[in-house]
Amino acid sequence: MPSGDSPGRPSTPSEIADGSELLITSIRTGNTEVFAVDLLFGDMRNLTRNPSSEDRYPIWSPDGSKVVFTSNRDALQTWNLYVMDADGQNVCRLTNVAEYGICYFPTWTRDLIYFGYASGDGSEAVIACVQPDGSGFRVIGPGRDPAISPDGQTIAFTQHTGCGYCLFAMDADGSAIRQLTTHENQIGAVTPAWSPDGQNLLYSDQVGKKLELFLCNRQGGNQKQLTHLEQFAASAAWSPDMRHITFRLTDYDYWNYPDSKAYVYREKRSDKRPVWIMDADGSHSRVIEALHYHCALDGSRPVWKPTRTTQ
């Protein structure tokens, strides 16, 4: 399998910092649960422990003390936002969306949680926000896959432009919308992610009939392809020290085909979308063996626990 490495890059991977921990979704219990994983030792902790539900899209709070995730635990066909302590205790629902509504891809600043929302009536997907105590829910505007910048000032998001999806940004209040990329990605799964210093964005773009990971600055300039894996790479996340990038990799864009999507979610194949890691320049891309065979199929990012240096 192509590695994405090229001449002139370091011959050995950068070392992973001791104490590095990821949030992932796993089906090792037979259900989609949120786990915290120690990257060095492979130790895993089941945080949600709710076998009657599907729990997805986990993220840390900015200080790492809490976790936000989505779940259908209160209504089988409806996905609300929930928050819990980092050890899985004190679960609290944050949203009360309409039946068949779906909350997804949350990101958290110090005072607000931003997320994508799709209603069950087929209307346009929107970006919304809510306070960490569940108050102040409001819709900001149309868009998908939102990611709020570390300073809380800018939302990166995805928008369909007629022939495909491109990367956009806007101010946190929904104003000053600007387009950052012009290449129209017909596959989707752009899933932008900010670097911890707020200066760059990771995103997925179409190369041929596949998805590769790209990097650009916050204005959309200096675009660079990071992976050359010839599969579907998406849902990337930066390590707090900005030395590593984790992402999800699969060989099939099943999310674009309703019948296939329903089948793979029902089948719960444990080897179809593992977590990969690479150095921040795109070198040394490789699967994380501890997360090779039991990751869930949803598009949740493998997000790194924040450290004090990123606060």
What sequence of helices (H) and strands (E) makes up the elements?
EEEEEEEEEEEEEEEEEEEEEHEEE
Tally of contiguous helical segments = 1
The biggest beta sheet is recorded as:
4 strands, antiparallel
- Major sheet: arrangement of strands: 3-2-1-24
Structural class by SSE content = mainly beta
Shape: globular
Q: Averaged pLDDT, please?
A: 92
Can you tell me about this structure?
Helix content is 3%, strand content 39%. The protein is built from one helix and 24 strands. It has one helix at residues 258-267, and strands spanning 21-26, 33-38, 44-46, 55-60, 66-71, 80-85, 92-93, 102-108, 113-118, 126-130, 138-142, 144-148, 154-160, 165-171, 178-179, 193-194, 200-207, 210-217, 224-225, 232-238, 244-250, 275-279, 286-287, 303-304. The strands form six sheets. It has a four-stranded antiparallel sheet, with no helix packed on it. Strands 4-5-6-7 form a four-stranded antiparallel sheet, with no helix packed on it. The longest helix has 10 residues, at 258-267. The radius of gyration is 18 Å and the shape is globular. The model has no long low-confidence stretch (mean pLDDT 92).
Key terms for this structure?
24 strands, 39% strand, single chain, 311 residues, globular, mainly beta, 1 helix
Concise structural overview:
This protein has one helix at residues 258-267, and strands at residues 21-26, 33-38, 44-46, 55-60, 66-71, 80-85, 92-93, 102-108, 113-118, 126-130, 138-142, 144-148, 154-160, 165-171, 178-179, 193-194, 200-207, 210-217, 224-225, 232-238, 244-250, 275-279, 286-287, 303-304.
